[in-house]
Design goal:
homodimer, alpha/beta, Aldehyde Dehydrogenase, Chain A, domain 1, Aldehyde Dehydrogenase, Chain A, domain 2, four-stranded parallel sheet, 14 helices, 16 strands, globular
Chain lengths: ~425, ~425
C-alpha cells in the first residue's frame, strides 16, 4: 500500500502531511492540465483492467473492512454501502471505461467572437486544478471520483472514511498503476494515507492547494464541511424533492410516475419525499395512489385533510415536511391549488428537484418558471435527477448550490475556462 | 435619505440591522427573479434620469464628503476616486442606460437536448439571488453595481466606504426612485445605512441571505474579506500582469503595445506591471522601449542584465516581480527564452492577464495553452482586459478565481442556471 497511496512518515503530523499532499497535487495539476486525452484515457482503462485483475485482493481488503465494521457495530445500511462483490467491482471498472469514453472537455472552445477592432476572443475550457473529495463508506467513490477528476485534467486528493480505508487503498493501488502505465504524474490521484481526523480539518483550510472540495456523504458530514471549510464546495445537503399532482393531471400517468419517483430506489437523493395533491383531484387520486404505494411497501404520512380520504394514512407532524427520509416513507399533503403547491415547495424544498404532473401547459410553465430548484420537471419521475440520465455521463454528485456547478456535477462541471485574445498589435484607445 | 436608503433605527445593533436587510433582500430577489425585462429597464432608465435631474444635490453631497475626506487627510488618489463632477455624473447615468440596453440574461436557454427516452432537457439562466458588494471610495459603484445586479434579476446589498457615504446615499435615492417608478420591490437595491464596521463582518457571515459577495477595492480590503467571508466571493486580489516580448516579436508593434499596456492608464488592474524581454531581441529592443517609456514618464526597474543595455534602468529587487504598482513604474527582466518567460509568469503572476508579442504562431499557442491566467493575449495590450472591451457590456469587476465567474464579471456572470426537464410520464427503469 505504501507504494501506491501517498507515503506517510508515521512521525509526521496530519497538517504537514496534508500540505505535502497539496504541494504534490499542485505540481501534478500543472502537468495534467496539458496531458493528452490519450494519456488520460489510457490511465483510466489501465486502472479498470487492474481492478478486474486484482479483484481478489480488493475483495480480501473489503472483507477485512467489513469485519472491522461489524465489530464497530456499523449500521446495516453502512455495511451495505461498504460491501463490494464481484458485480460491484465490475461496475467500478466499467465506470472508469465509461469516463474514458466521454469527450475530453479540456481545450473545448465554449464561445468565440470578434470585436470591431479586430481582436478575436475565445472562451476555452481549462481544468479547475486540484479537487478534494471527502466521502464516507462507499469504496467505489475512490475510483469514480478519481477517474472523473483525472478526465477533466484535475489532480484529486481523496479522503475516504476510516471504515473503507483498506478497500479504498486497494482500489487506489489500481489507479496508481494506471497513472504509471500512462506516464502521468503519480500525484494526479492521491488517497490521504491516514485516517486521522485532523487531516480533514487541514484539507478544509488549505485553499492555496485545493480549488474545490466535494463532500460526498450524509447530512452530518456535509454540515461539518460547510461549517469549517475555507475552500469552495460543490455540495448538496439534502434532496427534499416534491412531486405535485395538479388538478389537470393524467391520473394513470400520475400513479405510475409517483410510485416510481418514491419507490424505484427510495434511498437516492432524487427520490420524492413529499407528494402534494391538488384538492380538485384528491378524492379520486388519493385512494388509488395509496393502493399503489401500499402494494410497493411504502408508508404514507399525511395531513388531516388527506386522512379523511383514506384511513391507511398515518398522521404527519410538521417535521415531516422538512425530512429527507431516504426510505419507503412518503409525506402527503393536499393543497388548494398551484399557488399553494408553489408556496409549500418554496418553504420546504432543499433546492434539489421538483416535479409537476399535469396536462395543463400553462400550469407546467408557471411551475418550472417560479421554482428555482436545480432541476424542475414536468410529467416525469424525480428519480431521473442524475448525470447519467441527463446524458452527461458519470457524475461526482448533484449540487444544490447556485455557483459554478448546479445539478449533476460531471466532467464539464469539473472545469473552469480562460479567455484567449488574439490580436495584431491593437492598443486600447 | 431615510426615505430612500434602508431605514435604520439608531438603537439597532449592526448585526440585527444586516439580518433585516438580508431578509428583505431575499424577498426582493424572489420577486425580481420573475420581473419583466421592461420593468427592470424602466427602473434603470428612470434612475439615470433621476441622477441627471438631481445632479445638484449629488454634487452637494459629494462636496461634503470631499471636505470631510480632506479633513481626514485622505490621499490625493482616494480623493480623486471620491470626487464627482458633471461629467462623471453623466457617465454614471449613461452607464445605467447602457446596462438597460444589454440583453436580459434571465430565462435564456443555454443548452437543450433530448434523451432517447423522450425527456427534453434544457439549461435555463436564472438569477444568482442576492449579491453583496463591498467597496471603498468610488461613489459610482453604487449605481454601476446596483444596476448590473438588477439587470440580472438579483437583489443587491451595497456597502460603500464611510468616506463616500453621502455621495452614495444621494445616488441610492435616485436608484430607489427608479425602482418605485417601475413598481419593483424597494429592497431590490439596498445601501447599508450605517458606516459601522461591524456591518461588514455580519455581511460576510450571513450566507443564508447573500449568495455571493463582490469586494471592489484595494488589496487590504480584498484580503480582509477573503480571510473572514463565509459567503462565496467573486474577487481579484491583484493584477500582476505580464507582457513578454518574444524573440520573433515585431519590434515596432511591441513598442506601441508595451507603452499602451503600461501607460494608457497605469492605475487599472489590467495594466502591465512586468515586461519580460527575450534575450534574442533585448539589445535591440531595450534601448528603444526605454526611449518610449521615458518619454511617457515611466520609471523602469530592471534586472542586472537589462541594466547593461541601458543606464536609465534602476536596479530591481526581488519584491518588484511581485508588486502591483498601479503606477508609472515597470519591472523589466531579460529572459533566456519562451520557457524561461513561462516559468517567470508561473511564479509571479496573480492569474489576471498576460500577453505575448510575437510573429511566431507556435510560440503564441504554447503561451496561451500553458498559462492558466483568466485572460491570455497574443499581440495586444493587456489594457484590453475589460468587460466593455470584450463586448460583454458593463462589468462589476474582473475575477481571478476559477469558480463560476472568471475574467470580466458582467450580467451573464451574475446569473446561475437550472435544468428544466419535460416529459410525458417517463419513469426511470
Amino acid at each position: 500500500m505504501t507504494m501506491d497511496t501517498a507515503i506517510r512518515n508515521e512521525e509526521e503530523p496530519a497538517t504537514l502531511l496534508m500540505r505535502r499532499l497539496g504541494l504534490e497535487a499542485r505540481a501534478a495539476a500543472a502537468e495534467l492540465a496539458l496531458a493528452s486525452t490519450e494519456a488520460k484515457n489510457h490511465a483510466l482503462c489501465q486502472a479498470a483492467a487492474n481492478i478486474r485483475a486484482r479483484s481478489g485482493a480488493i475483495l480480501a481488503a473489503n472483507a477485512r473492512d467489513l469485519a472491522a465494521g461489524k465489530a464497530k457495530r456499523l449500521t446495516a445500511a453502512m455495511l451495505d454501502r461498504l460491501a463490494l462483490d464481484q458485480a460491484r467491482i465490475e461496475a467500478i471498472a466499467r465506470g472508469l471505461e465509461e469516463v474514458a469514453a466521454l469527450p475530453d472537455p479540456v481545450g473545448t472552445v465554449l464561445a468565440e467572437w470578434e470585436r470591431p477592432n479586430g481582436l478575436r476572443i475565445s472562451r476555452v475550457r481549462t481544468p479547475l486544478g486540484v479537487i478534494g473529495v471527502i466521502y464516507e463508506s462507499r469504496p467505489n467513490v475512490t475510483a469514480d471520483a478519481g477517474g472523473l477528476c483525472l478526465k477533466a485534467g484535475n489532480a484529486a486528493i481523496l479522503r475516504c472514511g476510516s471504515e473503507s480505508f483498506g478497500s479504498s487503498s486497494a482500489l487506489m493501488s489500481c489507479l496508481a498503476a494506471g497513472l504509471q502505465a500512462a506516464h502521468l504524474h503519480e500525484a494526479a490521484i492521491q488517497l490521504v494515507p491516514t485516517t486521522d481526523r485532523a487531516a480533514v480539518g487541514e484539507m478544509l483550510r488549505m485553499s492555496e492547494f485545493i480549488d474545490v472540495i466535494v463532500p460526498r456523504g450524509g447530512k452530518s458530514l456535509v454540515e461539518r464541511v460547510t461549517a469549517e471549510s475555507r475552500v469552495p464546495l460543490f455540495k448538496h445537503l439534502e434532496g427534499i424533492c416534491h412531486t405535485y399532482v395538479h388538478a389537470d393531471a393524467d391520473i394513470d400517468l400520475a400513479r405510475r410516475v409517483v410510485v416510481n419517483a418514491k419507490m424505484r430506489r427510495p434511498g437516492i437523493c432524487g427520490a420524492t419525499e413529499t407528494l402534494l395533491v391538488d384538492r380538485a383531484v384528491a378524492a379520486r387520486f388519493v385512494p388509488l395512489i395509496l393502493d399503489d404505494l401500499a402494494a410497493a411497501g411504502c408508508e404514507v404520512r399525511g395531513d388531516d385533510e388527506s386522512r379523511t380520504l383514506d384511513d391507511r394514512i398515518i398522521p404527519a407532524t410538521p417535521a415531516d415536511w422538512d425530512t429527507e427520509y431516504l426510505d419507503a416513507i412518503l409525506a402527503l399533503r393536499i393543497v388548494a391549488d398551484l399557488e399553494a403547491a408553489l408556496d409549500h415547495v418554496h418553504r420546504h424544498s432543499s433546492g434539489h428537484t421538483e416535479a409537476i404532473l399535469t396536462e395543463d401547459g400553462a400550469a407546467a410553465e408557471r411551475f418550472v418558471t417560479e421554482l428555482d430548484s436545480a432541476i424542475v420537471m414536468v410529467n416525469a419521475s424525480t428519480q431521473f435527477a442524475d448525470g447519467g440520465e441527463f446524458g452527461m455521463g458519470a457524475e461526482i454528485g448533484i449540487s444544490t448550490g447556485k455557483l459554478h456547478a448546479r445539478g449533476p456535477v460531471g466532467v464539464e462541471q469539473l472545469t473552469s475556462f480562460k479567455y484567449v485574445v488574439r490580436g495584431h498589435g491593437q492598443c486600447r484607445p
